[in-house]
Amino acid sequence: MTIRGIKRDLLNLLLELGKDSHPNEFAALLTEECGVISELNLLPGTVTGSSSASVFFDMMPLGTHHAGSAHSHPNGVLRPSGADLNFFPRAGRYNLIIGAPYREGDWRCFTADGEPCELAVIP
Ligand SMILES: [Zn+2]
């Protein structure tokens, strides 16, 4: 399945989750429906501090509509950490980082290799 983009509602929800979790991180798995990333499954647990969301991914279930992951960086750095680069290949093709202060444009998408990639926002 080719991914065409992410649903705006879901992106807004991810930004909201980042804000609600701050100063902690949240981590979620993303699933697609008909080529659009449209749902999330929050991973259990709370991690205090930054760059530690990868612990969530050790208990990651893999489903058929699995598209990737999203997690927040309370420090606002919109780049994958070393730990992120280790789990992106396991998490899937599209990996979103949501950064403080969690405004509309405070996110980036990365491939499994940790390279920045375009992801369309679909109304
Ligand atoms: Zn991270």
UniProtKB/TrEMBL annotation:
Q: Which SUPFAM superfamilies match?
A: JAB1/MPN domain
Which key words are in the record? Answer: Hydrolase, Metal-binding, Metalloprotease, Protease, Zinc
- Organism, as annotated: Methanoregula boonei (strain DSM 21154 / JCM 14090 / 6A8)
Q: Name one GO biological process term.
A: proteolysis
| Molecular functions (GO terms) | metal ion binding; metallopeptidase activity
Question: Is the keyword DNA repair assigned to this protein?
Answer: no
Record has Cell wall biogenesis/degradation as a keyword:
no
Q: What's this protein's name?
A: JAB domain-containing protein
Superkingdom of this protein's organism:
Archaea
Pfam families in the record: Prok-JAB
**Ranges of residues in domain JAB:** 9-109
Q: What is the lineage of its organism?
A: Archaea, Methanobacteriati, Methanobacteriota, Stenosarchaea group, Methanomicrobia
